[in-house]
Specification:
The protein is of the alpha/beta class. It folds into two domains: about 50-435, no CATH class; about 455-590, no CATH class. Helix content is about 50%, strand content about 5%. It contains 23 helices and seven strands. The protein has helices spanning about 5-10, 45, 55-70, 75-90, 110-120, 130-160, 160-170, 175-180, 185-200, 205-220, 230-235, 240-265, 275-285, 300-305, 310-315, 315-325, 340-345, 345-355, 370-395, 395-400, 405-435, 565-570, 575-580; strands at about 95, 460, 480, 490-495, 525-530, 550-560, 580-590. The strands form two sheets. Strands 3-2-5-7-6 form a five-stranded mixed beta sheet. Strands 1-4 form a two-stranded antiparallel ribbon. Helix 6 runs antiparallel to helix 7 and helix 16 packs parallel to helix 19. The longest helix is centred in the first third of the chain and has 31 residues, at about 130-160. The N and C termini lie far apart (about 65 Å). This is Mannosyltransferase. GO terms for molecular function: alpha-1,2-mannosyltransferase activity. Belongs to the glycosyltransferase 22 family.
C-alpha cells in the first residue's frame, strides 16, 4: 500500500527529506506535502499494511453498535437529565430535574429535539424500548463516523503506523465502549470534537470551526477549551483572521439563534442555556463543588480502569517525544505538519483544567478519549524508534540500518502492547457487564396495564436504589420515588399540560436540598425496585421480606464494598467469581393493590 506523506519523509536511508518528480525523477526544492515522494524507500515498508476506510468503518461500527446493545447506563445523570426529558418530549410524560426548571434553565431542549424528532416518528411503529435502543444505535453510528474521520486524519498527519495503532487501541477500549452510545452531552461532544480535530489536521478549517461551535452551543460549553489550539493555528500561524471571524459568525447564527428560540419557547422567557450552565458552574459559590467532589487521584485511577496501559503511555507522551527527539534520528517531523505541541494541546489543556476541579466525574473526560488513545499510539511509536536507535548501537541491527526500517525490528513490541491493552479492556468490559448488565432488564417484567387497562396508571417506585433507574423508556407507566436515607434532591414528574416546561415548582432548588413533597408512600406503588445490599434501616427496610410484596424478578448486582478491588474492576476467569460478592436487585409487586 502507498505510504503517507509523513512516512515518506522519514524513510530514506539518511533520515533527511528528499523529493522526486512524478515524471522525471528530478529533485525538487518544494516543501509542500505532495512532493514528499521517495523512490528508495525500503521495500519492506512499501508493503506496510493498514486498514482502508471501508474496513476501518466496518470495525468501528461493529464495536460501537456492540456498546449500544450491551453497554449499560453508568451515570444516573444520563437517565434523569437526558433520557427522561427526551421521554417527555416524545410521549408527554417523564421526570424533570431542577436543571430543567424554568427558574434555572441551565439545560437546553434544542439538543434533545434533535433526537426527539426521529423518536416521535419512530413511535408510530415502535415501542419505547425499541426506540431506546434505536437512538443508542444512532449515537453509536455517529461516533463511528467521527472516529473514521479521526483515523484518516491521524494517518495523514502522524503517519499510517500511528493511525493503525490508534485504531486497534481504540476498538476494544473500555472507555470508548462506555461513552460512544451514551445519551450525554459529553458523549455528543466526544463525537463532535473528534470530527473537529480531524478536520483541523486535514486543514479543513470551516467545518472544524462549525463542529467546535456545535459542541459548545448544542452540547457542552466547556469544550470551547478544545477549540483554542485550532484558533491559535488559524490566527497566529496561518493568519486566517477573516476566515476565522467569518465562520465563527456563521456558526453562531446557524446554531445559537435556533437554540435560543427553542429554549426561550420552552422556558417562557429569553434563555441562553449555554451561558446559564457556565454562569452556574463558574460564578456561583456552590456550582463546582456541590456534586461529585473527588480526590486529586480520581482521574488517574479512572483513566487506568478505562484505558489501562494506554493511559500510562498517554500521560508519558510529552517525555517520550522529548526523549525520542534526543535519541532517535527518525523523529523529525515534516514541515507541513502541525507541531506536536500544538497538535496535542487539546488533551493537555483539558487535563490541566479538569484535574484541578473539585467536581470530578468519568464522563468529563469523554470529549478527549480519542486524544488519549492518540497520545498512547504516539508514545508507542516513540518507544519503537528509541528501541531501534539503541539496538543499532548495541546489537547487530547496525548492519541492516541502511536498508531496513525501525518497524521491522520493533513490530513485536507494539503487537504485545496492543494485545495487552485489548485484553485488559475486554476484561474491564466483561466485568462491568457481569456486575451491572442485568439491571436495565429488570423493569421488562412490569405488567404494562392496570386492572382498568390503563398503562399510564402503573407506578414503578425506587427507594434507596434511586440511581439505578434506566429511564421511563424501559419502564411501562411512571417512575416515582419513595423516601430513603438519601437526603439530596431527586427529579419530579413533569406537570400535565402544554406549557409544563414553563411551570416553576417550589420544590426545586440549586442547592441539592431534598424535598419529599413529590415522594409516594410505598403502599401507593404498583411495583417497587429494592435490593438486599447493605443493612436495613427504618427508611430502608428490606421490602422483599415483607408479606405485602411479591417478588416478580431478581437480577444479580455487585456488592462493591464486599468484593475484591482488583477482581471487581477486571474480569479474571474463576478468580472474579471467587472474590466478588453479589447482592440481588428485586422487582416487587404490591399484593395490596389489585391490577
Amino acid at each position: 500500500m502507498p505510504l503517507t506523506a509523513r512516512q515518506r519523509s522519514i524513510h530514506n536511508k539518511n533520515g533527511a527529506k528528499r523529493t522526486a518528480s512524478f515524471t522525471k525523477g528530478r529533485r525538487s526544492q518544494k516543501s509542500n506535502e505532495g512532493e514528499y515522494l521517495f523512490t528508495n524507500a525500503p521495500s519492506d515498508l512499501r508493503s506496510i499494511a493498514y486498514p482502508g476506510g471501508a474496513v476501518a468503518l466496518a470495525l468501528l461500527l461493529s464495536a460501537r453498535l456492540a456498546s449500544a446493545y450491551w453497554g449499560q447506563i453508568a451515570d444516573c445523570d444520563e437517565t434523569y437529565n437526558y433520557w427522561e426529558p427526551l421521554h417527555y418530549l416524545v410521549y408527554g410524560s417523564g421526570l424533570q430535574t431542577w436543571e430543567y426548571s424554568a427558574q434555572y434553565a441551565i439545560r437546553s431542549y434544542m439538543s434533545l429535539w434533535l433526537f426527539a424528532v426521529p423518536a416521535k416518528i419512530l413511535s408510530l411503529i415502535m415501542t419505547p424500548v425499541t426506540i431506546f435502543y434505536t437512538l443508542k444505535a444512532l449515537l453509536a453510528v455517529l461516533m463511528a463516523c467521527s472516529e473514521l474521520m479521526f483515523y484518516k486524519a491521524v494517518c495523514h498527519e502522524f503517519g499510517v503506523h500511528v493511525g493503525r495503532v490508534w485504531l486497534f487501541l481504540n476498538l476494544p477500549a473500555a472507555g470508548c465502549f462506555a461513552s460512544s452510545a451514551a445519551m450525554l452531552p459529553s458523549s455528543w461532544s466526544s463525537a463532535l470534537v473528534t470530527a473537529a480535530l480531524a478536520c483541523w489536521w486535514r486543514r479543513r478549517y470551516p467545518p472544524a470551526i462549525f463542529l467546535i461551535a456545535a459542541t459548545v452551543l448544542l452540547s457542552w460549553p466547556f469544550t470551547a477549551l478544545l477549540g483554542v489550539p485550532i484558533a491559535v493555528d488559524m490566527l497566529l500561524f496561518k493568519g486566517l483572521f477573516k476566515e476565522f471571524i467569518k465562520w465563527s459568525m456563521i456558526s453562531l447564527v446557524i446554531i445559537l439563534l435556533p437554540t435560543v428560540a427553542v429554549d426561550s419557547w420552552h422556558y417562557g422567557r429569553l434563555v441562553v442555556a449555554p451561558w446559564n450552565i457556565v454562569a452556574y458552574n463558574i460564578f456561583t459559590e456552590h456550582g463546582p463543588d456541590l456534586y461529585g467532589v473527588e480526590p486529586w487521584t480520581y482521574y488517574f485511577v479512572n483513566g487506568f480502569l478505562n484505558f489501562n496501559i494506554v493511559w500510562v503511555l498517554a500521560l508519558s507522551c510529552p517525555l517520550l517525544l522529548v526523549a525520542c527527539s534526543l535519541i532517535s534520528t527518525r523523529s523529525s517531523r515534516a514541515s507541513f505538519c502541525i507541531p506536536y505541541w500544538l497538535s496535542l494541546m487539546p488533551l493537555a489543556l483539558w487535563l490541566a483544567v479538569f484535574m484541578t476541579q473539585p467536581h470530578k466525574e468519568e464522563r468529563f473526560l469523554y470529549p478527549v478519549y480519542s486524544m488519549i488513545i492518540l497520545c498512547g499510539a504516539i508514545s508507542l511509536d516513540c518507544l519503537q524508534k528509541m528501541t531501534f536507535a539503541v539496538g543499532t548501537e548495541l546489537l547487530r541491527w547496525r548492519k541492516e540500518r541502511e536498508r531496513r526500517h525501525y518497524l521491522v525490528y520493533t513490530g513485536p513490541l507494539v503487537v504485545m502492547c496492543v494485545l495487552l491493552a485489548g485484553l485488559l479492556s475486554i476484561s474491564r468490559i466483561i466485568a462491568l457487564h457481569s456486575h451491572y448488565g442485568s439491571v436495565s432488564s429488570l423493569t421488562s417484567h412490569v405488567s404494562p396495564t392496570t386492572a382498568a387497562g390503563a398503562t399510564n396508571d402503573v407506578l414503578v417506585c425506587y427507594g434507596k436504589d434511586w440511581y439505578r433507574s434506566s429511564s421511563s423508556f424501559l419502564a411501562p407507566g411512571h417512575v416515582r420515588f419513595i423516601a430513603s436515607e438519601f437526603d439530596g434532591q431527586l427529579p419530579a414528574p413533569y406537570s400535565v399540560g402544554a406549557n409544563a416546561t414553563r411551570v416553576i415548582h417550589p420544590y426545586f432548588n440549586d442547592q441539592n436540598r431534598g424535598d419529599n413533597r413529590t415522594y409516594l408512600q410505598p403502599s401507593e406503588c404498583h411495583y417497587l425496585v429494592d435490593s438486599d445490599a447493605g443493612k436495613p434501616t427504618r427508611l430502608q427496610p428490606h421490602y422483599h421480606k415483607r408479606d405485602e410484596w411479591e417478588i416478580v424478578a431478581r437480577v444479580p448486582l455487585l456488592d462493591a464494598d464486599r468484593s475484591h478491588r482488583i477482581f471487581r474492576a477486571f474480569y479474571v476467569p474463576v478468580l472474579t467469581n471467587k472474590n466478588c460478592v453479589y447482592a440481588n436487585l428485586y422487582l416487587l409487586k404490591n399484593r395490596l393493590i389489585e391490577f
